């Protein structure tokens, strides 16, 4: 019988053993760092009770318990699959399980997003951005954070990206863009009324539009010159947070930045080294 099963069923356990089993179940990873004395103190049991307990569940002793309990936990973590992107963890999950689920969620989102984007579409996007007189990025809600990150990276290689700061300012920014400019629209659903309004303004001004969305058939995507898709995993309903969508949008923007950087590698590398040197000179010696 597996240790976990024995701890959960508690067949033939006395009161002290039940208390010990419950403590281990509630502190799955933590007990692996405990000596037998530490576990004894935390569970108000004797070390001899712990040894008898280990033998009762088919183990040689406490050392054998720690080795096999660690292996069971690792096997359980490795078996975590099909993480719900809207609610990736529950109140019953341990910290280690949450780490594993978030890692799997990010990995799946990144792999899917990578697989649905072609070299051709990325080359086209980079070409449009490099030819543009001005670049703007338009985001709403949670997508504003990846937009801000992209703006920051581009600024450091002397390619300013305009991003509105005040609410409602994005409409004025869009109205000032023209046919020689390029706008990136971030909209996971592609159905945001606010972003659709902005995209319409840009379309009427004949601005080149790149849409990053999980829905290539959406209202916003229909107005785009180019759509860079991201993995579609989150629902439109209530969710704990935008884990999967945000990492996918970040991936697209980081890829664009990387490709733009490589297009003028020596020039951009020089700029970054110069910037970092200035920062180093601005720091106190440790």
TrEMBL record:
What PROSITE patterns is this protein classified in?
A: HTH_RPIR (PS51071), SIS (PS51464)
Q: Where is the SIS domain?
A: 125-266
GO MF terms here are: carbohydrate derivative binding; DNA binding; DNA-binding transcription factor activity
- What region holds the HTH rpiR-type domain? 1-76
Q: Which InterPro entries match?
A: Homeodomain-like_sf, HTH_RpiR, RpiR-like, RpiR-like_SIS, SIS_dom, SIS_dom_sf, WH-like_DNA-bd_sf
Entry keyword DNA-binding: yes
- One GO biological process term: carbohydrate derivative metabolic process
Q: One Pfam match, by short name?
A: HTH_6
Protein name per Swiss-Prot or TrEMBL: Sialic acid utilization regulator, RpiR family
Q: Which organism is it from?
A: Marinilactibacillus psychrotolerans 42ea
């Amino acid at each position: 019988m597996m240790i976990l099963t024995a701890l959960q069923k508690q067949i033939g356990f006395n009161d002290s053993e039940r208390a010990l089993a419950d403590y281990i179940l509630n502190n799955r990873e933590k007990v692996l760092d405990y000596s037998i004395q530490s576990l004894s103190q935390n569970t108000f049991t004797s070390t001899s009770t712990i040894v008898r307990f280990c033998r009762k569940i088919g183990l040689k002793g406490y050392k054998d318990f720690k080795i096999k309990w660690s292996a069971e936990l690792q096997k359980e973590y490795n078996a975590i699959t099909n993480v719900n992107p809207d609610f990736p963890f529950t109140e019953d999950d341990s910290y280690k399980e949450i780490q594993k689920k978030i890692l799997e969620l990010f990995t799946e989102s990144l792999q899917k997003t990578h697989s649905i984007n072609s070299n051709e579409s990325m080359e086209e996007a980079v070409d449009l951005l490099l030819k543009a007189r001005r670049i703007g990025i338009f985001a709403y809600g949670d997508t504003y954070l990846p937009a801000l990150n992209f703006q920051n990276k581009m600024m450091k290689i002397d390619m300013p990206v305009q991003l509105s700061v005040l609410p409602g300012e994005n409409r004025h920014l869009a109205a000032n863009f023209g046919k020689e400019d390029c706008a990136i629209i971030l909209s996971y659903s592609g159905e945001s009324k606010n972003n659709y309004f902005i995209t319409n303004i840009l379309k009427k001004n004949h601005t080149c539009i790149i849409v990053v969305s999980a829905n290539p058939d959406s209202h916003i995507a229909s107005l785009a010159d180019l759509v860079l898709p991201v993995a579609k995993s989150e629902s439109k309903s209530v969710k704990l947070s935008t884990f999967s969508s945000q990492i996918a949008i970040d991936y697209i923007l980081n890829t664009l930045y990387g490709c733009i950087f490589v297009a003028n590698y020596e020039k951009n590398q020089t700029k970054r080294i110069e910037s970092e040197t200035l920062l180093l000179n601005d720091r106190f010696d440790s």
